[in-house]
Design brief:
Blueprint lengths: L5 H7 L9 H11 L22
Length: 54
């Protein structure tokens, strides 16, 4: 039996088609801390490539 890398199976489950990186989280934090997000309050932001849609 050939074993696939653990992340390969998870990648198929993510609609974005790739695993997230620390930069994905950091970019979200930077945006939410910016003036551009000043009207966004009390939200839950799922940074998961759309996986919660499944």
């Amino acid at each position: 039996m050939t074993r696939r890398p653990r992340s390969e199976g998870h990648t198929r489950e993510v609609p974005a088609g790739h695993m997230g990186s620390p930069d994905d989280i950091a970019n979200t934090v930077v945006f939410l801390a910016s003036e551009q997000a000043s009207f966004i309050t009390g939200q839950k932001v799922a940074v998961n490539g759309g996986r919660t849609l499944l």
